[in-house]
Amino acid sequence: MKTGVVLINLGTPASPKAGAIRAYLSEFLSDPRVVEIPSALWKVILNGAVLPLRPAKLAPKYKQIWMEEGSPLLVYGKRLARGVQEQLDQNQVQATVVLAMRYGEPSMQQAFDQLREAGCERILIVPLYPQFAASTTATIFERTLQLHRQARDMPEFRFVKRFHHLPGYLDTLASNVRAYWQSHGKPQQLLLSFHGLPQRSVDQGDPYLSDCMKTAEALQTRLAGEGVPIDIAFQSRFGRAQWLGPSTLSVLQAYPGDNVRHVDVLCPGFVADCLETLEEISIECARAFSQAGGEQFRYIPCLNDDPAWISAMAGLVRQHIAGWPEPNTD
Ligand SMILES: C=CC1=C(C)c2cc3[nH]c(cc4nc(cc5[nH]c(cc1n2)c(C)c5CCC(=O)O)C(CCC(=O)O)=C4C)c(C)c3C=C
Ligand SMILES: [Fe+2]
Ligand SMILES: [Fe+2]
């Protein structure tokens, strides 16, 4: 019985131009799991203000972070999928690994077509989000079934809900921070910045905040011997509703007033660098910190294509596909 593995991240525009950004944002922000205000009202705001204005503002930002091979989120995703495939092959684990994006390309539909053509009857879905949120992880689960709504014959699915507790994920993050400090020296403060979420989602039972806090505690435990204080904050607020706080920007702007002038920022909720880390944190937040009197701002990169992270992901995949019973094909 053939097994397929789909590693799925959020998605990113096909090019750093306004037209491609508009197409991507339109698909992303039309997902009712992402923006939960009444759909008739949201359609007016999305088509009347967000889609006409935001792409032009984002285009120069995407251009600044674009790599030779494409958008960083996609480039690192491809490297991760290739690395996981190599590790499974080396260990004689028979599975086909593909990368997909929830919005844009390579699409989830393309991934399922590829796995169906390869004859995969079991599919493991791995959202590339360590912490569960309905707006990121659940929408991938839902889309998986939606894309098979017309199917007369379906594969078996397994869904990985989250992996914030995975030792290989936490250990690699902690050892990267330690290695960074060994090469560059320690800061006065380490700030863990997670992507934000509307406060309402958490009040309604989304476990995202709790997952982020558990991740932060596990990193604090691993880095306790270093003597660097650790704070937690939430970035990338979108829209006017109240989002989880404190906001990364406000924390960074307040540090110099409290005599914290050397800060390192790590974004443990992103497994790959992207617009939110390379532009919002490394450029915008760095500038705001300096304008508030900060002296040294350093951004510690995401796990990206780190070999230890690729091994951790391959291990997670192996754990999930081991012991998956052969379906009765009689
Ligand atoms: C890591 C987890 C993420 C959560 C949780 C999340 C929630 C969330 N995001 C938006 C709106 C936007 N996010 C945007 C970019 C973006 N978001 C994530 C991850 C999470 N989002 C990533 C990895 C990226 C980067 C994509 C890239 O191309 O590099 C954007 C687009 C950029 C912008 O316009 O600022 C928006 C919009 C909402 C509303 C939300 C929860 C409700
Ligand atoms: Fe986001
Ligand atoms: Fe952002």
UniProtKB/TrEMBL annotation:
Catalytic activity: heme b + 2 H(+) = protoporphyrin IX + Fe(2+); Fe-coproporphyrin III + 2 H(+) = coproporphyrin III + Fe(2+)
Any one Gene Ontology molecular-function term assigned to this protein's record: metal ion binding
Major place of residence: cytoplasm
GO biological process: heme biosynthetic process
Record pathway: Porphyrin-containing compound metabolism; protoheme biosynthesis; protoheme from protoporphyrin-IX: step 1/1
Keywords associated with the record: Cytoplasm, Heme biosynthesis, Iron, Lyase, Metal-binding, Porphyrin biosynthesis
InterPro entries found in the cross-reference section: Ferrochelatase (IPR001015), Ferrochelatase_AS (IPR019772), Ferrochelatase_C (IPR033644), Ferrochelatase_N (IPR033659)
Key word Acyltransferase present: no
Subcellular location: Cytoplasm
Family under the similarity heading: Belongs to the ferrochelatase family.
Function: Catalyzes the ferrous insertion into protoporphyrin IX.
Protein name: Ferrochelatase
Native source species: Advenella kashmirensis W13003
Gene coding for it: hemH
